Amino acid sequence: MNALIMVDIQNDFLPGGALAVPHGDTIISIVNRLQPFFQLVVATQDWHPPNHMSFVSQHPGHSVGDVVNLDGLDQVLWPTHCVQNSHGAAMHDQLHTTSIAEVFHKGTEPRLDSYSGFFDNGGNHETGMGTYLRDHRVTDNFIVGLATDYCVRATALDSIRLGFRTWLIEDACRGVELNAGDCEAAITEMKQAGVQCVTSARWLAPN
Ligand code: VGL
Ligand code: ZN
Looking at the annotation, which residues are catalytic? Predict the structure, then answer.
């Protein structure tokens, strides 16, 4: 059983959004056309309270991209993004959502961030996605979305850790690239962990 996991394809991560991923919008039509090829489609949504401690606004004197220590974990500081129920947190208008079987929220705890769609950054609390996929007899997770170097990376690595065969559909992902080379490093790390990289051409005819 194959699942398509759509990671954080939300307004705030798209051009014009608070934490825009460069060229993030170019993946949407690819993701829409991929959906019918999968037996199960799920999505994650970054879903922060307004005072989330990953927001630079909660750390006077700091700038976006600074790393602080938060309860023993390294935390990158971001602009305010994906606040629960805001327009920025909504899935992008053009993303087809009718085939989404379940949405998993993450980053809901004010002091704890969650890049992975499976666990928080401390690795202690599950979102329920792992159990859900296992209950639906999923063996293979195909991962698309934003951002390659943060939430896609963390979701793919946890997927491997949980024992799923894991695939990254490379041209259906884009990264933040806070530092040059971050995306390439993330892809190398995913491959080393056992993630298999493919492109949408495996399913789709060229445009
Ligand atoms: C993400 C930074 C902060 C992501 C979420 O979806 O990759 N990145 N929150
Ligand atoms: Zn976030």
Answer: 8, 106, 151
